[in-house]
Input
Amino acid sequence: MTNDCLFCRIVAGEIPATVVHETDETLAFRDIGPKAPVHVLVIPKAHHADVAELAAADPALAGTLLAACAAVAAGEGLKEDGYRVIFNVGAHSGQEVFHVHAHVLGGRPLGPMVSA
Ligand code: 5GP
Ligand code: ZN
Output
């Protein structure tokens, strides 16, 4: 638990979130500013700043996080039509919250992967 981390505070129950999936090690909740009909953030409960740091510190947990993304996508009914999983890392990506999170997006055709 990192006191000044927004997503650690969601894990701790100090800030409300609409949780759609939870395991011992992961939590998934709806993004507050959805960019698609389905936009869920999937996080490890343990604090790691980004996916590179997570992969270096705990590769097994990185795999567990990906499995949670797949479970969320299935639970949200996205398996048949497909979906996108995004990890932002650092300044050029526009990462705003420095607790690693996967964006699971779907529910409509998502268009180009990156805008020009
Ligand atoms: P990033 O840009 O760091 O990859 O994504 C951060 C995401 O967190 C954004 O999509 C933003 O809408 C979402 N977000 C920011 N604050 C909150 C919050 O308090 N609750 C929830 N559920 N999502 C948040
Ligand atoms: Zn955190």
Observations:
- The pocket of guanosine-5'-monophosphate (ligand 1) is lined by residues 6, 15, 17, 29-33, 41, 88, 94-97 (CB under 6 Å).
- The chain has three helices and five strands.
- The helical segments are 6-11, 51-57, 59-75.
